[in-house]
Amino acid sequence: MARTESNMLPIGTKAPDFRLIDTVDNTKKYLNELKGVNGTLIFFICNHCPFVILINSELAQLAKDYVSKGINCIAISSNDVENYPQDGPELMKQNAIDNDYIFPYLYDDTQNVAKAYDAACTPDFFLFNAKLKLVYTGQLDDSRPGNGIPVTGKDIRTAMDALLQNETINPNQKPSMGCGIKWK
Questions:
Q1: CATH architecture of the domain formed by 4-179
Q2: Which helix (H) or strand (E) holds 94?
């Protein structure tokens, strides 16, 4: 299991726009129609990565806890499905259903969106404010496959709560870590 750290897009970066297929309902979705009124958490994930499998239930719970507070969640998979067919759109849809995702699970078939966000790994997290300016990029929490640390979402939850309270988000953010995005 290769470990790749996120690239840490600079704080204040405007969220790159996109139009991607939602694998659950097979419709094209735009960032502007999916963004939350108070913020938007975009995360790059895939179906087969052990780092993502470990946190799937927390991703589903995050959305359930924060959508009602005006922070929408958006998942994107950018992996090469020719070499990693388990990350293809049909299996993405099934994964979303199996894990009770209430957020869109979008497919970035060109990998242009991952490149625009400078995404490097799965999972890779980007929290934007209401104006789609980046306020947090980094890890979900300290849990990793095999390290025995429980999945809590502490780092992301702290940042999301600070955003909602209009408080300063700690600028000392730890990179996310996971499987490298499978580039074509």
A1: 3-Layer(aba) Sandwich (3.40)
A2: helix 89-98
